[in-house]
Amino acid sequence: MREVPLHIGFIMDGNGRWAKKRFMPRTAGHLAGLKALKKVILGCIDQGVRYATLYCFSTENWKRPADEVNYLMGLFSEKIMGELPFYNKNGIRLLTTGDISILPEDARRALQDAVRATEGNDVITVQLAINYGGQAEICQAVNRALSEGIREITPEVIRAHFDNPEVPPVEIIARSAGEKRLSNFLLFDSAYAEFAFYDKLWPDWDENDVCGIIDEFNTRVRKFGGLA
Ligand code: FPP
User: Fold this and answer.
1) CATH number of the domain that 86 lies in?
2) In the β-sheet with 124-132, what is the strand arrangement from edge to edge?
3) Closest listed residue to residue 9, CA positions, set 146, 135, 173, 154
4) What is the CA(206)–ligand 1 centre distance, in A?
5) pTM of the complete model beyond 0.90
6) Number of domains the chain contains
7) Distance CA 143, CA 135 (A)
8) Which residue from 20, 21, 30 has its CB within 8 A of the most atoms of ligand 1, so it is best to mutate?
9) Contacts of 224 (CB under 8 A, 6+ apart)
10) Whether the predicted pLDDT of 148 surpasses 90
């Protein structure tokens, strides 16, 4: 029987290259990437995937030129709440992971409002990783535990102190645009995740690419350190 992963992680790479190929500014690639993101979420819903995490902005992306960073912050502040009918029509619950406290006020508020406005939706939980880094996530969880007086750090303690501990570990991570690395994404939860890498640039992705990921997932034999 075809197994549908409970949780897929997406590294949405290649927006800049997509735009460059079309002699457009990199920012146009991010806007096209947002359109692809919506198609991919619909694909996840069609296939019965219950959780998706999308890498939108890493702790390292602040190094990019200011106009690109500002554009992405503008997408968070202007587009997130504007898509509310889309989330509610499709049962999409939004969560964020990463330290959004240092985002520009309007972006932070839009994200918090969207999380609140979609908390009753239950078809799929979409976790947006924003100002997210896997190393920072682990350090933050450990620091939270220490500040509560917990003296023994275990994997369970770390996970319980994540931003959204109720989100189960990712089962497969898919990356677009040819690079074969994790780039500080879901370091802790990827311990036994499968990985799938595709050459297609992120803005060209749609619902069918989700089917491809699930087909690939079904070719893998998962042993979690045990025997098949
Ligand atoms: C990586 O491509 C992509 C990003 C750093 C940003 C991804 C963000 C989005 C798709 C928009 C999300 C928006 C909302 C509102 C959720 P790249 O720029 O590294 O591409 P390149 O490798 O070709 O340069």
Assistant:
1) 3.40.1180.10
2) 92-97, 124-132, 51-58, 7-11, 172-175, 194-197
3) 173
4) 15
5) yes
6) 1
7) 12
8) 30
9) 192
10) yes
